[in-house]
Amino acid sequence: MINFLKSGKVRLIIVLICIAIIIYESIGLYKDNKEYDIAETEYEELIEDVVAVAPVEEIPEGATYPPIHINYGQLRAINADFTAWLYFPYFEINYPVVHETKIDEYLKTTFDGTKNSSGCLFTDVLSSPDFSGMHDIIFGHNMRNGSMFGKLKKLSQSEDRTLLKDSPYIYVYTEKAVYQYEIFAYYVTTVGSDAYSVVTTDDEYSDFLAYIKSNSIYEIPEDLDLSAHPSILTLSTCSGKSGSGKRFVIHAAKIMSWEH
User: Fold this and answer.
1) Is 36 within the bounds of a domain?
2) Considering the domain boundaries, does residue 73 fall inside one?
3) Kind and range of the H or E element at 3?
């Protein structure tokens, strides 16, 4: 009888612990979803305010980039760290980018300064704010609701390596120029790997490119010439379970630029 009572109490304790865990995780999930909704609304409203179809006279002759007009002055007034606007047509990724002044300051801060786990797209302190470096990196969260860089998981999870065949381009709009990048590689890596290399010389570029080629699961387009060492843009986001240290990166080469 005593053993039965003890075993009954143990089962009850286990059940109560399980219920407590479920409640705790449910509350956390609710808070996360609420934050995601707040952040998504913020960025949707921001897009409505600062992004429009560019007038014909604003487009340089012969330019082939999407005709987007960005209100740079308004964006700088909201956040002095604003550095560019990122547009990735295939995934409809359309966000402002800030240049961090200290490490990870935008991991849990949105563009308007709100504390929120959705954060903001940002370039790291070692990247060039004007995207003139040999290797610049934009970081963004892998959001469950598909916002920020959440849609990039479609590439890492798909066995179809032709998804980007018809739309392999990323556009970066700065106040002085618009840059077109062509994607040539992507793969899963880890925090601190050579995918995040600081590149300032031709030798470092060659080593970096060799590393990319040895890890990429995407075939480099035959008509893309990398011999002149065009600037490389890397998009980076988390991959897999939180805390795993895994990252998914996309590398793209700057192939065109148009000055305003």
Assistant:
1) no
2) yes
3) helix 2-50
Q: Is 183 helix (H, G, I), strand (E, B) or coil?
A: strand
> What are the tens digits of pLDDT across the range 10-65?
565 555 555 545 444 544 444 555 577 788 899 999 999 999 999 888 888 889 99
Residues 6+ apart with CB under 8 A from 25: none
| Chain mean position to CA 160 | 21
Structural element, H or E, at residue 157: helix 153-157
Q: Based on the structure, what is the number of domains in the chain?
A: 1
Tokens matching residue 172: 């970066």
With H, G, I as helix, E, B as strand and everything else as coil, classify residue 45: helix
d(CA 143, CA 216): 23
Q: What is the pLDDT of residues 95-104, one digit of tens each?
A: 999 999 888 8
d(CA 146, CA 207): 33
CATH of the domain at 53: 2.40.260.10
3-state secondary structure of 215: helix
Q: How many CA atoms lie within 13 A of 218 on its CB side?
A: 25
Q: Is 14 contained in some domain?
A: no
Question: pLDDT for 180-226, tens place per residue?
Answer: 999 999 999 999 999 999 999 999 999 999 999 999 999 999 899 99
Q: Model-level pTM?
A: 0.86
* Nearest to 170, CA basis, from 242, 49, 256: 256
* Cβ–Cβ < 8 Å for 86, 93: yes
Residue 64: which domain range?
43-259
**Is residue 160 in some structural domain?**
yes
- Identify residue 219 by its one-letter amino acid code: E
Q: Where are the beta strands (DSSP E) in 15-130?
A: 51-53, 68-70, 82-88, 93-99, 121-123
